[in-house]
Amino acid sequence: MLQSGLFRKFPRPNFNLALHVSADLPSGMVAYTPGYAFANVDTVDITVYGEGGHGAAPHKTRDPVVLSPQLVLVLQTIVSREVAPSESAVVTVGSIHGGTQHHVIPNEVTLQLSVRSYGPKVRGQILAAIKRISAGLAATAVTREPSVSILDLYTPSVYNDPGLSERAARILSTSLGAEQVEKIHPVMVGEDFGRFGLAKLRIPSLIFWLGSVEASHYREAQAGKRKLPTLHSSQCIPDPDPTIETGVRAMTSLVYDLMGPAVQRSCLVCLAQAPLREGHRFRGPYTDSRSACSRDLSSF
After folding, report:
1. d(CA 199, CA 159)
2. What percent of the chain has pLDDT over 70?
3. Domain at 40-150: CATH architecture
4. Residues 130, 46 contacting (CB under 8 angstroms)
5. Would you say the pTM of this structure is higher than 0.90?
């Protein structure tokens, strides 16, 4: 959307808002994180080269299968010994592939990495260290320098505007109840919503978590009697009705408040003229008791 000119074709918004389902929070709750909330995600491929040969004569080869696990271990020292302890980072080697036969030493082994960070400085530090360490280990093995490819699959970190985050927390506490709103730590998963905040317009952004776990399952998990499935698990089944209701109420209350009094008054006129389901009421800070609009906007 951004590449297609979203903010050129449409007016610049004052805010970017989004929500994401949480597999850790009970339905009816929301959570927010001021500042960095989701991580940079880089995907890196490394090819370790050697000189293959017969498994019975390893002394006549340069074995990339032996070199590769050494590289995996040393890569872990980037986070433990190079990145400042006050920063957060992850270097995960999720895949190693090499060789096709029991008795044949291959010419190469490939490693697939997932690299996580928050700020641009630490991101650059990690990627540079991966290249340096890969080349250094190859030199000690007297073999060709590995190929290190940073794939074009980069997802930037999500930075929640601190002022907007705290304002949203106050709005949500009023709409849902203070006990239903929680401030939580950032996570190292990625979310491409961050691109909207990184656009040249630098629009204040916020993404918050929407609880989706059935209340009884959550209580059992808190008591150590159940393990909650993670997001994207085949066992992760959101509690539909309260999750959807809370999501609609949360997003509606945020948008309504952030639009400002002028637009809010227009909304009240529309609501006053709209049919109302029996038993539904709307309350809100801008309800005008002198008009026909006395509906409860906080439960809309």
Report:
1. 12
2. 86
3. 2-Layer Sandwich (3.30)
4. yes
5. no
Give residue 76's pLDDT.
Answer: 98
Domain ranges of the chain: 12-38+158-257, 40-150, 260-300
Q: How many Å separate Cα 112 from the centre of its chain?
A: 20
Place of tokens 């986070």: 79
d(CA 91, CA 300): 44
3-state secondary structure the chain: CCCCCHHHHCCCCCCEEEEEEEEEEECCCEEECCEEEECEEEEEEEEEECECEECCCHHHCECHHHHHHHHHHHHCHHHHHHCCCCCCCEEEEEEEEECCCCCEECCEEEEEEEEEECCHHHHHHHHHHHHHHHHHHHHHCCCCCCEEEECCCCECCEEECHHHHHHHHHHHHHHHCHHHEEECCCCCCCCCCHHHHHCCCCCCEEEEEEEEECHHHHHHHHCCCCCCCCCCCCCCCCCHHHHHHHHHHHHHHHHHHHHCHHHHHHHHHHHHHCCCCCCCCCCCCCCCCCCCCCCCHHHC
Q: What does the alpha-carbon distance between residue 89 and residue 234 come to, in Å, rounded to a whole number?
A: 28
Token match 């002198």: residue?
290
Q: 52-80, pLDDT tens digit by residue?
A: 999 999 999 999 999 999 999 999 999 99
Nearest C-alpha neighbor of 19 from the set 45, 38, 44: 38
**Level-2 CATH architecture, domain 12-38+158-257:** 3-Layer(aba) Sandwich (3.40)
